[in-house]
Design brief:
alpha/beta; Rossmann fold; 2 domains; eight-stranded mixed sheet; 11 helices; globular
Length: 382
């Protein structure tokens, strides 16, 4: 096994190593690739965790075979070595037996090693023309992102990255997607473009907002681009009735309790995936009172009270979704230096979630609300 690791690295035929079936349940998997850093060769191991984060560890190639060998059976129970000359697989049984299946030929083409400082690859190209981004004023006709729209471009791509990692959407039927409180609809067009153009899937997408002039403009852009499955509807999301159980419900910066309405609508309509970025959090600010909770010491200074309300409100929202059978992750959408509204709540419905677990989450939710002395609007809706 150690000779295998050493050989594929020295011959320069290694594409990547996938380390799966981790012992630590918080880890999803790790992927190892060779990178060039300041003229030296390293094996970079990127580890993906269940909270949506990724960490990197760089190991000198001379130490890489031993480091990989120590991971087998202790940190990971399956390792797939992909090379230009074939593939090898290492599996560790429940009793600790190690099996090596080697299908790597003697010869293979050398693999180009990327530099560590290579440019980030976006889901939507940063240099090529994209029709909806031109129409919405994010790019010029040649594909260059306008300087004032770089933050918006990064936000769109980050959202699509988190969407692509979330769930394997079925490709054998038409998807039904909602964007509630869609506003200027950058995200609506981006999600529709991602599924229909980049993924080649069939989509019907309903986008709802109160502003009639914005809705009229967005419909005109969709028609101009030939986005026949993208529909913009003027109205109150409280009154909107989805056509079916959505595969995905998204919302970007719905203000205050509007986010609660979005989450409630998604849950009650049976949405498989929910991705919502809250905006301002005023409701709890008006409910928290000194002398009424365990957090009195944080209520003296308004700026700290605001941060408490932001975190507590979104944490309770996550708990409520968990009590309804969703696997929930709170993620950073974009650099907080660009906008403080950078938390994304992502929920994926788990039909195997037990009633006992859902009941425990609801009891935890109710207990926290009682201790804080608050009655969140979301609880009234669900």
């Amino acid at each position: 096994m150690l000779e295998l690791f050493k050989s594929v690295i020295e011959k320069g035929i290694l594409k990547k190593i996938i380390l799966s079936k981790p012992a630590d349940k918080k880890i999803l998997k790790s992927v190892a690739t060779l990178v060039n850093m300041k003229g030296e060769l390293y094996l970079q191991i990127e580890t993906f965790t269940s909270d949506g984060k990724a960490t990197h560890r760089n190991i000198k190639v001379s130490d890489a075979p031993d480091a990989l060998g120590q991971m087998v059976g202790t940190e990971y129970n399956q390792i797939n070595v992909l090379t230009s000359a074939g593939e090898a697989q290492i599996k560790v049984s429940g009793k600790g037996k190690v099996t090596l299946l080697n299908r790597i030929k003697d010869k293979g083409e050398r693999v180009t090693v990327q530099g560590h400082d290579r440019k980030k690859q976006h889901i939507i190209s940063a240099t090529e023309p994209v029709d909806f981004l031109f129409e919405l004023g994010v790019k010029d006709k040649d594909g260059r992102v306008f300087d004032k729209k770089r933050s918006k471009f990064r936000q769109i791509n980050r959202f699509l990255e988190l969407l692509s990692e979330a769930y394997t959407f079925p490709s054998d039927r038409e998807l039904y997607i909602l964007d509630l409180c869609c506003g200027k609809s950058y995200l609506s067009f981006a999600v529709y473009y991602y599924f229909t153009v980049l993924r080649g899937m069939s989509v019907t997408m309903d986008c709802v907002d109160l502003k009639e002039d914005v809705i009229e403009y967005c419909n005109s852009v969709a028609q101009k681009l030939g986005y026949t499955g993208l529909h913009f509807i003027a109205g109150d999301i409280n009154d909107f009735e989805p056509k079916a159980a959505p595969d995905l419900t998204v919302s970007l910066h719905a203000c205050d309790i509007a986010t609660d309405i979005v989450l409630a609508k998604a849950v009650t309509s049976g949405s498989k995936v929910i991705m919502s970025t809250p905006c301002c959090h005023h409701e709890m600010m008006h409910q928290l009172k000194a002398g009424g909770s365990d957090c009195d010491f944080m209520l003296t200074h308004s700026i700290l009270m605001q941060k408490l309300c932001d975190a507590a409100t979104d944490s309770l929202r996550c708990l409520m979704l968990e009590s309804k059978g969703y696997d929930v992750t709170a993620l950073e959408l974009i650099d907080p230096e660009e906008t403080p509204k950078n938390v994304l709540i992502r929920g994926i419905f788990n039909d195997k979630c037990s009633d006992q677990k859902k009941e425990a989450k609801r009891k935890e939710y109710d207990s926290i609300c009682q201790r804080l002395g608050v009655e969140p609007y979301l609880a009234k809706l669900i």
